[in-house]
Write a structure and sequence with these properties.
Order of helices and strands: HHHH
Structural class: mainly alpha
Shape: elongated
Helix content: over 70%
Radius of gyration: 16 Å
Distance between the termini: 20 Å
Number of domains: 1
């Protein structure tokens, strides 16, 4: 990979972070609108503390699979697996730093581990799909 690829991987990591946070807001909107409507703001904020990390596990994994596949297909000469694992590592470092700075590392620790493993596995599988498609 080139230096430009590492910069692109950083951009992809940031894009995935924005999309993952937006998806968490979407999950909370659906939950608050259709599943548990009619409560106060404090109720939904407390619920978001429980629900948002889990949406990151499931939706985040789908996003990482799609990104690894998409960015691998778009530039077949770049090693898809190395690129996918690089943007996943960058994402993980940023995510852990934000969670640690918020003082929530211990409260979401096990969910964070599950999310990280899921994202790495999804990125790996997405990149492997590219390799099969190009073979």
């Amino acid at each position: 990979m080139t230096g430009w690829d590492y910069l692109k991987a950083f951009g992809v990591a940031l894009l995935l972070m924005v999309l993952n946070v937006a998806a968490s807001f979407g999950v909370m909107w659906v939950w608050g609108t259709f599943i548990e409507p009619g409560h106060g703001q404090a109720f939904y904020e407390a619920a978001a503390q429980r629900i948002a990390p889990w949406s990151s596990v499931f939706i985040g994994s789908l996003l990482f699979f799609a990104a690894a596949w998409l960015f691998g297909v778009r530039k077949p000469q770049r090693p898809a697996l190395a690129f996918a694992l690089t943007f996943t590592l960058i994402y993980t470092l940023i995510d852990v730093a934000i969670i640690a700075a918020a003082g929530a590392l211990l409260s979401v620790g096990y969910v964070l581990v599950i999310a990280v493993v899921g994202k790495f596995a999804a990125a790996f599988l997405g990149a492997r799909m590219v390799k099969r498609a190009n073979a």
